[in-house]
Amino acid sequence: MIANAFQGIKIAVGILIFDAAITMIKKMKKKVFPTVIMTCASLVMMLVNIFSWKFSSINLMLIAGVFSLIVFAVQKAPGRKGGAAK
């Protein structure tokens, strides 16, 4: 009986994560890259929760942050010598 209760709690937490993701999508600016990062992170966290995988949400946030910084650095890389844009 207790195992079934915990299974219900696990599903409820997955639904709460999904609800938070939908709320965040509605409030954020409609740019493709941030939406993809947030959607992927939410999906991974929901799957981790449902399948009881041993993976920390902090690690997921760090991975997404590093990936975002790399993409930001590549997009903002100066195309001209000396970084001067005219």
State the main characteristics.
single chain; 86 residues; mainly alpha; elongated
Q: If you average the pLDDT, what whole number results? A: 77
Q: Describe the oligomeric state of these chains in a short phrase.
A: single chain
Q: Uncertain runs with pLDDT below 50, 5 residues or more? A: none
Largest sheet: none
Molecular shape: elongated
Helix content: over 70%
What topology emerges from the helices and strands here?
Blueprint lengths: L1 H26 L4 H20 L5 H19 L11
Helix pairs in contact: 1-2, 2-3
Plain-language structure description:
This protein is mostly helical. The protein contains 3 helices and no strands. It has helices at 2-27, 32-51, 57-75. Helix 1 packs antiparallel against helix 2 (32-51) and helix 2 (32-51) packs antiparallel against helix 3 (57-75). It is elongated, with a radius of gyration of 18 Å.
